[in-house]
Design a protein that fits this description.
alpha/beta, 452 residues, DNA polymerase delta subunit 2, globular
């Protein structure tokens, strides 16, 4: 007879309440203020990176974009804007006749192309960036960088070199776990979707709660101190039309039809029951995602407790934001439900999602493409998506597959970057070891086929 093991416990702090919880809705401001705020906040980090890379003397060449003289070596710090012809134009969308049929999606989800143009913008104006130094640079709109070069008589800045802000300073890793303790990361559960097989979800639940496996499995299960659900925990009942590109279940007032409201209610009820079983055994952080009943603009606010009347009664359920930051056992976690990374990939010709996630560490920004093509609130006093501190674990949810990489910074930073796969597709949960910062994937794939 197996003796039930007590689940390990470690200290926990929710660090997302200050940067990501909205204190009022700043939806009436201009987005230009957010870019200027971002530039002002990241300029000191870029200047420090310039000193490390090119030396302190190089800052003496720093000028505003409109003050750069032709054929004189200059250094300019500004925000990148990437002009792409494939990027959707909101003016075309609002002026399109409602009876017109949108062109069918050809499967090309990238905005970027060979004819893209890079601009560098600061408080005074903008310059076109050209040069071979840009050929291999992975950059997206909204990134604050420093560039060196000369302005040509035609007005373009011929770039000879460029510099990002770099990985932010990292607090010391003070892991409280002396043995192997784990945080589980999962995303894309889509609980309640009738088209999905519930067996892998049930197996995940039973594994995390210690109802499956041998004695060795039970020991590891008892050492899983927390579960983070990184978005898309439930399903959106509204289907998208591939031919029209519009949401067919929405009326002209952009509200859910009655049938879709009922489906959504059933999905959320199923999620509540599922979370009640989970949180009865372990602490759970629930982040909203793209398909969840939450606000569209980032940062997404937590599920309202009235949606989850059973599970929210338990203290072990933490309804949190997207993006989300926390400290578990002395290890800082920071991540999103995947929208920022998905949007960045539209700007880049590469399909290397893990590299793009690592790049955002060097940008010191979680969501650089917001607000250009990624919806967010128009913050004016500060940009909450700036990484003032480097996390120890940096993750993105709802990705096509599991990948991870240990990133080392120039000042001793050590970051585990993790792509958390969508569970509905990959049937995979990720375990992060708090002591070693190593991670492993738990796969429940094939269980639904075996049951057929």
């Amino acid at each position: 007879m197996r003796v039930p093991a007590d689940r390990a416990t470690v200290p926990f702090v929710d660090k997302s309440r200050e940067p990501f919880r909205l204190k009022g809705l700043p939806a009436t401001k201009q987005f230009a203020d957010m870019y200027f705020t971002r530039l002002g906040e990241l300029r000191p980090s870029v200047e420090r990176a310039v000193q490390r890379t090119w030396g302190a003397e190089s800052l003496k060449q720093c000028v505003k974009t409109l003050d750069a003289e032709p054929d004189v070596p200059v250094l300019v710090i500004g925000t990148v804007y990437k002009e792409m012809k494939r990027k959707p134009n909101i003016l075309e969308e609002v002026t399109r006749d409602v009876l017109d049929v949108r062109p069918a999606d050809d499967g090309h989800h990238k905005y970027c192309g060979d004819d893209d143009v890079l601009f560098l913008e600061d408080e005074s104006g903008r310059l076109v960036l050209i040069g071979e130094a840009l050929a291999t640079v992975r950059v997206v709109t909204g990134v604050v960088i420093a560039v060196r070069g000369k302005v040509k008589p035609s007005g373009e800045l011929q770039v000879s070199d460029l510099c990002f802000a770099g990985i932010a300073p990292q607090p010391p890793l003070s892991a409280a776990a002396t043995s192997d303790c784990y945080v589980a990361l999962v995303s894309g559960l889509h609980v309640g979707d009738p088209s999905k097989d519930m067996l892998p979800l049930q197996m995940l639940l039973e594994h995390l709660t210690g109802q499956l496996g041998c004695a060795e499995d039970h020991q590891q299960q008892a050492n899983i101190v927390r579960l983070i659900i990184a978005g898309n925990a439930t399903s959106n009942p509204v289907d998208s039309s591939a031919e029209t590109g519009s949401l067919v279940a929405l009326d002209v007032m952009k509200k859910l039809a009655t049938a879709e409201q009922q489906k959504l209610s059933r999905n959320v009820y199923s999620l509540d029951r599922y979370l009640t079983s989970l949180t009865s055994s372990m602490p759970v952080d629930l982040m909203p995602g793209e398909t969840d009943p939450s606000n569209f603009l980032l940062p997404q606010q937590p599920f309202h407790h009235c949606m989850l009347p059973q599970s929210s009664e338990l203290e072990t359920l933490n309804l949190c934001t997207n993006p989300y930051a926390c400290n578990v056992g002395g290890v800082d976690f920071l991540g999103s439900s995947g929208q920022p990374l998905d949007d960045m990939m539209r700007y880049l010709p590469s399909e290397d999602r893990l590299q793009a996630l690592v790049d955002s560490l060097h940008f010191q920004h979680i969501a650089p493409t917001a607000p250009d093509t990624l919806g967010c609130y128009p913050f004016t006093s500060s940009d909450p998506f700036i990484m003032k501190e480097c996390p120890h674990v940096y993750f993105a949810g709802n990705q096509p597959r599991f990948e991870s990489q240990l990133v080392n910074g120039p000042e001793g930073q050590r970051v585990l970057a993790v792509l958390v796969p969508a569970f509905e597709q990959e049937r995979t949960c990720v375990l992060v070891n708090l002591r070693t910062l190593e991670c492993e994937a738990l796969s429940f794939a094939g269980l639904d086929e075996q049951g057929e």
